[in-house]
Amino acid sequence: MKTIILKTASKYLLPLLLLFSVFILLRGHYLPGGGFVGGLIASIAFVVYAFANGLEQTKDLLRIHPGYLMPVGLLIAFVAGISPMFLSALPFMTGEWFAEPLAVIGMVGSALFFDIGVFIVVVGVSLTIIFTITESA
User: What is the span of the domain harbouring residue 101?
Assistant: First the structure.
């Protein structure tokens, strides 16, 4: 379904949904949300764009295959989980926080970096599955 209305709307919805997914990601370690939900919203943004403009144009927009995002996200999440063991001799997956809060984000710690890793993994997995299904159909 490639109507002019959907094509026009998708060009405006993509950045808006990506911005909303980052908001949900950053909101997640204090309130409901986080890396998983934010990653799903970011994936939906690219799926809507793909429905309106085609899979090839969406792949050109992404510039890299989403399958490459999975190991990067896993590495970020693993480093966030293991960093307290080396920085403070605390157990694996213990929350480690910076001393001063950042202006917009608030207190930044290992939980945020773990959520960022989960976000990247979810985007990679979701888009890889959807792109594979779309290519085979």
Answer: 4-136
Which single residue is written with the structure tokens 């970096």?
113
CA distance 111 to 52: 36
Backbone angles phi, psi at 27, to 5 degrees: -75, -20
The angle that helices 110-136 and 69-87 make with each other, rounded to 10 degrees, is 160
Separation of alpha carbons 103 and 89, rounded Å: 29
H-helix segments, the chain: 4-27, 35-53, 55-62, 69-87, 110-136
75-125 pLDDT tens trace? 999 999 898 888 887 888 787 877 888 787 777 888 889 999 999 999 999
Q: At 108, give phi and psi (nearest 5°).
A: -110, 135
